[in-house]
Write a structure and sequence with these properties.
The protein is mainly beta and 189 residues long. The chain has 2 domains: 80 residues, OB fold (Dihydrolipoamide Acetyltransferase, E2P) (Beta Barrel); 78 residues, no CATH class. The protein has 2 helices and 12 strands; from the N terminus they run H-E-E-E-E-E-E-E-E-E-E-H-E-E.
Length: 189
Amino acid sequence: MCDRRIFLVGAAAFWMAGCAGMGSVEQGRVIAYDRTSGQVTLIRDSTGGKAPQAVYDALPPISVRSPNDRHEMGPEPQAGKLMAVDLKNRQITIYDSAANQFRTIPYTPIEERHNVARGTGFPLIDKEKRTVSLYWREEHTVITFPVSADLLALPSDTWKGGDIVRYYFKKPDQALRMMNVTRTDLSKS
């Protein structure tokens, strides 16, 4: 009898959701966040969640307003333009907002430190030595490498990986719920 009730409740919830019009879910890496307006600009995952590893390379960037109800949003996202670090091929991919495109930069490491639990205080930009030190969260790695004058002139958020957010919406420009995947510890749920 209990199994039948659970089935009926589940079927009713599914039917009600269908009547209300199901929304969609999108995920992306944050490249800009305006706290005042609640506007989040991100680069979407081009795999649509169908690959084991997300690839944040869907252009153009999209903007979505964070939920009107602050309780429907996790920690505020931090923005950054560092899209990917390929440690094997020694390449860094950044989003160049001025050109509205990605830029792949080969690098020669001065130092690589692996298994770094937390990368606080990065990026470190040393204009005298003409080096950048960044933390790549996905690999728990700190990399220090020399850069040219034009790369040294880029904004510091170029060398920082933005947070990953997942959001639920019915209208593409307004999130109803938003989760900061990067800053949410699901083990504590």
